[in-house]
Amino acid sequence: MDKIIARFQADEARRTKAGRKLSDYFCRQLKQVPFETSASIAAQLGVSPMTVTRFLREQGYNSLDALKTELRLGPISSAWDITEDIATLQEDLREGRLLSDMLSQQMEALHSLNQLTHGAEWQPAVDLLVQARALFVAGFQNIGGIAHYFSEQMAYVRDNVRFMDGLNGTYLELLEQSGDGRVLVLIDCRRFASKSRALGEAAREAGIPILFITDSHCDWAQLGTVTLTIPAMRWRTWDSFMPLAALLDLLVTSAAIAQGERTVERGKMVVALQSRFGDFER
């Protein structure tokens, strides 16, 4: 229960007037939640039921029932647990409600990313990407594919970008080097890979700056020199990583523009190499 309260007390949860009202309510009345509905909570606080639902989604709960389930059974540790009745999901899919609601939630998540790009951490994150002498990107398990995609995109923008999958078991490519200019981009979301925290701690001990990209479920986000926290988007089936993919695209674009003419010149070199080796159709 302490972790649930900590989530509601986080700055991200309290960034709006309605958020502060709801944060205070859930922290004070958590034991009463199993006996409430979104409408009853909304009536007590003078907000709309949709505001209550939206607030809970931003904290990683698809609905008030999802919070009630966590209070009753403990936190959902997996990003892929299906907690709703399959027959209900199938009916909502046939009626068009399932995908419509998912698209609505995705649009809310994208709106929160817009706020993140105007936050205090955004420009320092872009600076780390473009000013590093060498950029090392790490992500594991299901996040590994998205992280690898990000590293390949960043390689179109700048030189000395390397993806680390951890298969060598040592991360020598990052940790054996000396001198300044190394930056680790560590990408992980729930359910967190055990390697992520260990690698981050090793990089910090070595004095290597870390750009940590994670979600609001992470309780060790302070590991990053700069941390970008995306909203947790738990859909009715399992966690969605759409906000993560969108955030990484925004970072690539910001870094490309920040590089200016260097991006243009590198793009010409990349196109020439693509043409030379013939892996891409014209």
Which percent band covers the strand fraction?
5-15%
The shape is: globular
Summarize the amount of helix as a percent range. Answer: 55-70%
With strands numbered from the N-terminus, the spatial order across the biggest sheet is 2-1-3-4-5
Which structural class fits the helix and strand makeup? alpha/beta
In this structure, how is the largest beta sheet organized?
5 strands, parallel
Distance between the termini: 57 Å
CATH topology of the largest domain: Rossmann fold
Kindly state the mean pLDDT as a whole number?
A: 86
Question: What is the ordering of alpha helices and beta strands?
Answer: HHHHHHHHEHEHEHEEHH
CATH homology group of the largest domain: Glucose-6-phosphate isomerase like protein, domain 1
Number of separate helices: 13
Task: Give me some keywords for this one.
single chain, alpha/beta, Arc Repressor Mutant, subunit A, Rossmann fold, 13 helices, 5 strands
How would you characterize the overall build of this protein?
The protein has 282 residues and is an alpha/beta fold. The chain has helices at residues 2-9, 17-28, 38-45, 49-58, 64-73, 86-95, 97-117, 122-131, 142-157, 172-175, 194-205, 242-259, 261-277, and strands spanning 134-138, 161-164, 182-187, 210-215, 226-230. Helix 8 crosses helix 12.
Summarize the structure in short.
Helices cover 55% and strands 9% of the residues. The protein is an alpha/beta fold and 282 residues long.
